[in-house]
Amino acid sequence: MKTADSYRTKLGHGILAVALIALTAGCAEKTSSLAPPKHLIKHDATRLTLSPDQVKDLHLTSATVVSQVIPEELDLVGQIDENSTLSTPVMSLVPGRVEKVNVQLGDHVRKGQYLAEIRSDEVARIEAELLHEFLSLEVDVERTKVKLELAQKARDRQQMLFNEGIGARAVLETAEGEYRMAEAELKAFREKRRSAVETTRERLKLFGIQSHEIDRLLKTRVTDNIFDVPCPRGGVIVAREVDLGQMVDVSHQMFMVSDLTQVWVNAQAFEKDINSIALGEPITLHLESYPGQVFHGKVDYIGSTLDPKTRTLAVRATVANPHLKLHPHMYAQVKLKVGQRTGLLVPTSAVRKTGETYLAYVVSKPGVFEERKIEIGPYKGDKVVIESGLRAGETVVAKGSLELNGLAIKMSSDSEEQ
User: Fold this and answer.
1) Which residues pair with 229 in a beta bridge?
2) Which residues on neighbouring strands pair with residue 73, listed in sequence order?
3) Strands (E), 102-220
4) Phi and psi dihedrals of 294, rounded to 5?
5) Closest CA to 77 of 267, 265, 263, 289
6) Rounded to whole angstroms, what are the CA distances from 103 to 154, 256, 400?
7) CA-based end-to-end distance of the chain
8) Worst-scoring range by mean pLDDT, 339-353, 368-382, 395-409?
9) How far apart are CA 371 and CA 35, in angstroms?
10) Three-state DSSP class for 66?
């Protein structure tokens, strides 16, 4: 009985072993059918070999590593600012209260445009004093005119009597003297009136009041305590320091008007780069707001002292801005040409970054691609400078390097799993 049971147990184990062997063989066969054909792709640490069909499917294009003269540039971060030589502060020459503001920050203005209105009791008082004095002198002039007219008639009558032998010479001379005195008196009052007007005109000029305001006052006999603040130049309002109801005096800056057709770019250069910068050097300006556009200028100022905290030196360039695309306080990338050297260039699309490493794929021969670690330099438009890892004349993959990189990573992963 034990023999029969033992025989059945051994038989069961044998059948189970055969089943496991068959299942393992089946899985291996299935796995083998899903893997890529070994003869189509070969991969080692630095080289990929692709079949012609795979090269065609990836749509790979190539480019030659070229050696050429490369301008050496110094990169600085700059800020657009208004040109202070083309900026004018607007002050109220009239002390008083702001009654109206006609412009806002960023408005374009023209010379002579009224920017604000000021109510000034002080200027109104000066006008009132002039008007009072002028009217008083007007009375004196008119009275003296009448006196002169009467003196003239008396003189003419005495002259007629004297000519007829009736009048005495002494009486004629007295009448002549009275006439001359009245004439002189009229002239004096007129001169006093003119002097009062001109004196007040000059006083009001100090407040920015134009002559036509005096003419209006004398014509209408009405004082005006509202005065306009004119714009001294055409440009853009880059600062506004006044609001309705605010009291201002002659020392208060109300606005800043700047001509932005020419702007400054202010940057800071590190101490090690100072020797590379010179007055008159051309610069190029690049802004995120205008990708692909380049603005040009020249260095026109280099500071004389370092900032003790940042150890940098102020550098400034003037840039033409005819279309007003550059606005104050915009940030810009400033490039200064400081020399030139011979270097290698490839298209930027030929370079792949994996972690902290840059790679390029060199075409060793048709279908064979060598993965190279490279070091890159500055970008030059759609090309990048190669500092090491490639040689002039070599052919690299320009379009499709990303796909090759992905394929290399996949094959490395598969190799590690095996």
Assistant:
1) 116
2) 337
3) 108-109, 114-119
4) -120, 130
5) 267
6) 66, 12, 56
7) 50
8) 395-409
9) 23
10) strand
What is the spatial distance between Cα 362 and Cα 396, in angstroms, rounded to a whole number? Answer: 4
CA angle 82, 83, 86 (to 5 degrees): 115
Q: Where are the beta strands (DSSP E) in 166-261?
A: 226-230, 235-240, 247-248, 253-258
Q: What percent of the chain has pLDDT over 90?
A: 40
Tens digits of residue pLDDT in 289-298: 998 899 999 9
Which contiguous run of DSSP H or E holds residue 73?
strand 66-82
Of the candidates 132, 138, 128, the one whose C-alpha atom is nearest the C-alpha of residue 193 is 138
Q: For residue 147, how far is the Cα from the chain centroid?
A: 72
Owner of token pair 């029969």: 4
Cα 386 from Cα 377, distance rounded (Å): 6
Going by the DSSP 8-state scheme, the letter that residue 410 receives in this structure is H
Q: Is 360 exposed, middle or buried (0-12, 13-18, 19+ CB in 10 A)?
A: buried
Residues 230, 217: contact at Cβ < 8 Å? no
Compute how many other C-beta atoms are within 10 angstroms of the C-beta atom of residue 258. 23
Q: Nearest Cα to 305, choosing from 278, 336, 269, 335?
A: 269
Q: What are phi and psi of 404, to 5 degrees?
A: -65, -40
In whole angstroms, what is the distance from residue 155 CA to residue 63 CA? 115
The pLDDT confidence band at residue 40, using thresholds 50, 70 and 90, is very low
Look up tokens 């792949």; give the residue.
352
pLDDT at site 265: 97
**What number is the average pLDDT over the span 343-371?**
89
d(CA 181, CA 159): 17
163, 252, 253, 330 from 88: Cα distances, Å = 74, 13, 10, 21
pLDDT(185) > 70: yes
How far, in Å, are 199, 330, 341 from residue 77 at the CA level?
Answer: 56, 11, 23
* Per-residue tokens: 230: 């004119």
Give the Cα separation of 226 and 220 in Å (integer): 15
